[in-house]
Write a structure and sequence with these properties.
This protein folds into two domains: 113 residues, Sandwich (Immunoglobulin-like), CATH 2.60.40.3080; 77 residues, Sandwich (Immunoglobulin-like). The protein contains one helix and 15 strands; from the N terminus they run H-E-E-E-E-E-E-E-E-E-E-E-E-E-E-E.
Length: 208
């Protein structure tokens, strides 16, 4: 029963994310100097309890091609799925011919690439810790944020040198990647923070 409830909660969370994917706002929308979020890629991947199946669901606002590769517990490529121009997807993958074990799943859409591990058929796998990334520098006035393992909900904020909150975003997606354009902000120093219950990551950018 717990497994069924857990699975339903994951599905409900993903549907909620799909319908209202990002609770994001510029604090002062009348200000021409704004943080502009670009298209995102968010996904959820989990084993279906008591089966050899796992489910992948994603939201891909760019609508570009997504490639899914599945590797055996020994690291051998056993399956490749090329998904063309899908903005949303929910798909089950059945590993019955391979059996119980911990598999690696590589997901890429050009801008974003990651590898997740999934345990099927009753195999055990410790949950992955929260891991976040912020670009080290701006590229054409843009930086990138990506994270994995954000089950508790993750906050992304931008503040100026006085600590004034300019932008706030809250995501429930387990895994996430997005670019942000801050080129219209006035000259100064800005701090980007990615915060989860288990970790806080900060990066400072200077606009001249």
């Amino acid at each position: 029963m717990k497994a069924i409830i857990s699975k339903l909660l994951v599905i409900v969370l993903f549907v909620a994310v799909s319908l209202n994917s990002v609770m994001a706002r510029n604090i002062d929308p009348s200000d021409p100097g704004r943080v502009v979020p670009a298209e995102k890629f968010a996904y959820s991947l989990y084993a279906i309890s008591e089966t050899t199946k796992f489910r992948l669901a994603f939201e891909n606002e760019l609508g570009n091609n997504v490639t899914v590769k599945v590797f055996s517990p020994l690291g051998k490529l056993i399956y490749t799925d090329r998904i063309k121009q899908a903005t949303e997807l929910k798909r089950n993958y059945d590993l019955a011919t391979m059996g119980r074990g911990v598999y690696s799943v590589e997901i890429s859409n050009g801008e974003f690439k990651t590898v997740e591990r999934v345990a099927v058929g009753g195999a055990k796998l410790n949950p992955a810790p929260f891991n976040a990334y912020i670009s080290a520098s701006l590229t054409n006035g843009m930086f990138k944020v990506a994270y994995q393992g954000g089950e508790e909900g993750t906050y992304i904020t931008v503040r100026d040198s006085n600590g004034t909150l300019l932008y706030s975003e809250h995501n429930e997606s387990d895994n996430f990647a997005r670019k942000y354009n801050i080129s219209s902000l006035k000259a100064g120093t800005y701090t980007v923070t990615v915060e989860n219950d288990s970790k806080v990551l900060e990066q400072t950018f200077v606009i001249k």
